[in-house]
Hints:
Chain A has 20 helices and no strands. Chain A has helices at 2-25, 32-37, 44-55, 58-71, 74-104, 109-116, 120-153, 157-205, 208-218, 234-247, 252-260, 264-292, 305-313, 316-354, 360-384, 389-402, 405-412, 418-436, 450-468, 474-480. The longest helix of chain B is centred in the C-terminal third of the chain and has 27 residues, at 51-77. Classes of the chains: A mainly alpha (489), B mainly alpha (91).
Amino acid sequence: xxxxxxxxxxxxxxxxxxxxxxxxSRFTEHTPTDFYVANRSVGTVVLALTLAATVLSAFTVFxxxxxxxxxxxxxxxxxxxxxxxxxxxxxxxxVALVEIGRERDIVTxxxxxxxxxxxxxxxxxxxxxxxxxMIALIAGQLxxxxxxxxxxxxxxxxxxxxxxxxxxxxxxxxAGYRGVIWSDAVQSTVLFAVLAAVVGxxxxxxxxxxxxxxxxxxxxxxxxxxxxxxxxxxxxxxTIAIAFAFGVPGYPHNIQRYFSASDxxxxxxxxxxxxxxxxxIYLFGALLGVxxxxxxxxxxxxxxxxxxxVQELLNPVVFxxxxxxxxxxxxxxxxxxxxxxxxxxxxDVYREFLNPEATERQQVRVTQLLLIGLVGLAVGLALLQPxxxxxxVAFAVVGFATTSAPVFLGVYWERGTAAGATASLLLxxxxxxxxxxxxxxxSLTGGAHYGFVGVVIAYGVFVAVSLATDTPAEDAVGEHSxxxxxxxx
Amino acid sequence: MNLGDIVAAxxxxxxxxxxxxxxxxxxxxxxxxxxxxxxxxxxxxxLGVPVWLWLQLAIVVAMLVLAWVAMGVWTAANNxxxxxxxxxxxx
Lengths: 489, 91
């Protein structure tokens, strides 16, 4: 009976999301500009909420709690610091990309890179490298979805992952970008509300002070600044925060969102509003994680910490809503990533190299077919479970940071070249992957986060190689770059 | 008029905007790293949350305000037009 109530709530929520998609599809025109960026008509509130829903994911709902339950609250600290710096990227790089996208009719980040560097090859390299991290990011979401369905519906993990992937595919096929962002707006609101409600319930109804005291008894040093294992040194926190600060605004699916903003001011305001929404959500996830230590015994798989603690504490209705919120966060990230990746493949590989005469409808159809292949790859990785949600998604985020130099510097530094972009896209992510896999020993980073090392290499290589090579055609640079200080000279 | 606009008003069309923007970004980095050396010992719990985290929340809010000011300075100095809407806006 308990499970039935929670399942009903959960099922009703998914049906509601699907209805939003069906409703949005009535407004979706089958043209690339509409299917990918909703005709560049997105306003401040929707853009902020879709940014939030896209960034807040299985990592936020399950991953942060899983990590803080073992390593303490430093996870929140670095995420909050990074979120402050996101606003600066959104308001500078994001604003420039809004303008350039509108002027040049650009809808994907790889399209921007191809035109900015006057090189189809650089666009393909960008697509290939970011594809690795996109698949990792989707896989992290599918693992989270599998965990949620396992706990809530008692569906074994593997079928649960397949179920999540199937639902996501159906949804994107129906809805396109407009459906994705509309449901994002609803889902980030739901996520914020349910996490705030759970934290409020623990603080005011269950005596969080006692729970925290029990947690300290269980794990000494859990509430210390450096955490129980002294992980959170100043150097580690700042370097991971910087890596995330480059990574999140550098998500290809976030860059695609820049192109959908209705004007630059919308971009600036929604970027700030995003941080205002995201920081409390990071806090809620982190607090539930550390408090879980005083509530439930540590599960065999730490990714199950948050669903189990919510199930332990709350009545079935609230449990169903929380799990629906979790699935909301997971879905909204995975569908955005999958849509962006497939649209880049469709426009920048299929149309550019395979069928230059492709009609707009053909491009959309190819996008939908590619989605199936991409999600299939992510399902394979999710079933392998190479890492927990936190580590897998963190790897994807810092990976995206190492791919951001050709976009961020390309927008404001006219001297950037195709050779610099290619070298940056190969070396920065390459070193990051080798560090993540421990093929390069982590001890060589000197206490810094491995993602930061990748970012330094990516940006350093981009600048050095660009200075040593010829600039691309003046037209390409002039039309795809801006001066950082336009009138301040 | 908000704080960002007030600061921005004095920095529009002036090279000083660069210094103001750069100084704020540098200050943000200093605060981000510096808080670690100040908050360390404050591990007592209030409502199940360590005191250092309550203080960090206040610091993060201050950092957000600074970031908003920096954004205002940059936008004003570059005279970014906020009325460049092309077509309908959804929300």
